[in-house]
Amino acid sequence: MSLHVIVGAGPVGTALAHLLADEGHDVRVVTRSGRGPDRPGVTRVQADAADPASLTAQARGAVALYNCANPRSYTSWEEHWPPLAASILQAAETTGAVLAITGNLYGYGPVPGPITRDLPLAATDHKGRLRARMWADAMARQRAGSVRVTEVRASDYVGAIEPMNSMAMLYASQAVRGRPVLTFGPPDVRHTFTYVPDVARTLAAVAVDERAWGEAWHVPSPPTRTVREVVADVASAAGARRVRMLRVPRPLLRMTYPFVPLMREIGELLYQWDRPYVLDAAETTDVFGVEATPWEEVVTETAAALTGRATAAAR
């Protein structure tokens, strides 16, 4: 079978590696630490993906190169993303591998209705503008004929996530442990949540289908839920008692910005939680046949993962 090279071994990179290996492909996972799934069909490589020569050497012979990386610090995107994205793009151009990028919805900025893939990238925060620039750079190479590139965009992750860097997962984890849940936005606004294995399935589909190249695609996701519903669903599946849910007042949250850089970064994106945030991925399903995993399955896996972590932490 063909060689697929994945940069990053976070939630999406790990799920994608398992998926491709299960299909019989040779999978190479490239990370700075050399970590990744320890299983047949997957080779873990310790290398710096921000070094174009090093990554190019690892990507030679690959049919697809997947950008599933993410800077380790949420506050250091401006420093670490540009050289990393440029290196991955250069490696794809040099080797001829299709580049499939794991994206998000930040680049669209606030939108008044459902988020469709034909919307302009009109971000109002620096993270969103950075993601938009990265996509513009990739598309410039695509239009020049030097690379084949596609991107999949997902909403907030749910599932057996490690590291647990999703706001909804952080809320649900508190409920599973029987602790009051403090939310940064109104808990009864409808929101799209994306199951991590569905991101992997979408990446695998678009990377090898020429209809996807030169375009961004949305990940099919379950019907919208509110934060309150997500927390209740996961807590119930985990057998946890119902807990209180309290919203942190926005003025109080803003008071932390000068002293807690992470909270300032989160604050720039809270528009996503203040009104309905609905991802439209119907076109992805129509073109590639990828469908969202049923919500009940998502809840069962998420609850099992959080229960396991809570049990381990209590030991």
UniProtKB/TrEMBL annotation:
NAD-dependent epimerase/dehydratase domain sequence ranges: 6-209
Pfam families named among the record's database cross-references: Epimerase
Identification of the protein by name: NAD-dependent epimerase/dehydratase family protein
InterPro entries cross-referenced by the UniProt entry: Epimerase_deHydtase, NAD(P)-bd_dom_sf
Gene3D superfamilies: NAD(P)-binding Rossmann-like Domain
Domain of life: Bacteria
